[in-house]
Amino acid sequence: MISNSSARRPVVTRHSPRIHSIAAISVHYEGHTEELASRPPDVSREGMFISTSTNFPEGAILNLRFFLALTGAQIETRCEVRYCLPGVGVGVEFIGISTQAVRNIEREIKLCSRQVRRPNIVKKK
Q: Is the pTM of this model over 0.85?
């Protein structure tokens, strides 16, 4: 039997919670002119996973602009590709992100957490 250990997915250690709360995203590969098609990703204060069929090498620099769904805050930052799952997407880490942008993401995470935890209680009359 042949071992396929090289095809294993990377082990990802998350330092902060991730949420699916992006209203729109624009991704540009630094040094290229075209905008890349992608589906709304999940985001954390440190990075995100971007669903895209475009393959990027580890270390590639991307320029991102996205809007948070609940607050409407616009985030613009550069990021570095940390891993690529061909045909699925890329995991990126924000680089040079502003303190205010991190605060906006943290606020969005708190708002999403409240929505998830809030039970739907129906009072009987």
A: no
